[in-house]
TrEMBL record:
Residue ranges of every copy of the Pyridoxamine 5'-phosphate oxidase N-terminal domain listed in the record: 24-134
UniProt-recorded name of the protein: Pyridoxamine 5'-phosphate oxidase
rRNA processing keyword on record: no
Keywords: Oxidoreductase
Protein source organism: Streptomyces cyanogenus
UniProt keyword Transferase present: no
Classification via InterPro entries: F420H2_bilvrd_red/Heme_oxyg (IPR052019), Pyridox_Oxase_N (IPR011576), Split_barrel_FMN-bd (IPR012349)
Record-linked Pfam families: PNPOx_N
Length: 153
């Protein structure tokens, strides 16, 4: 693992950087599991509303099936050096029952509105309970920046 030039950030700096990435990034890796079928991981577009991550997937997808059976999920931003991992429970909203402000913000970010599509879609909302953030080995210690839904900085 490359650590040259890595300066250990304070918890407040990690939180600031993680929140900035949650606002600006487009994709998140979503890890779910089904009691009978095991783990599943896919990348999805996401929206951060300041408190929760919103994603959308086909109502018949493996991800949708899994979160209905087992709502505990893990999310990861797609950078293996500047790591941001979130853990929480999924709350599901059929496309015709999703809060209007969330659906419109999602459509505004991506230029795509699942509610207007032919098939059924499921919006998935995850309020993080735990967030970990680190850049390289020097930041492994102290990587938890949210615990029990409370930011530590």
């Amino acid at each position: 693992m490359e650590t040259t030039g890595t300066v250990r950030r304070l918890t407040a700096e990690r939180m600031r950087d993680a929140l900035e990435r949650l606002v600006t990034e487009r994709d998140v890796w979503v890890s779910t599991a089904h009691p009978d079928h095991g783990p599943h991981q896919v990348p999805l577009w996401f929206l951060w509303d300041g408190r929760a991550v919103w994603m959308c997937t086909s109502a018949t997808s493996v991800t949708a099936r899994n979160v209905r059976k087992e709502p505990r999920v893990r999310l990861a931003l797609p950078d293996t050096f500047d790591v941001v991992l979130l853990q929480g429970e999924a709350e599901c909203f059929p496309d015709q029952e999703v809060p209007k402000d969330a659906a419109e913000a999602f459509a505004g970010k991506f230029g795509w509105d699942p509610r207007a599509e032919e098939g059924s879609f499921l919006y998935v909302r995850v309020v993080p309970k735990t967030v970990r953030a680190w850049r390289g080995e020097p930041e492994l210690r102290g990587r938890v920046i949210m615990r029990d839904g409370t930011w530590l900085a």
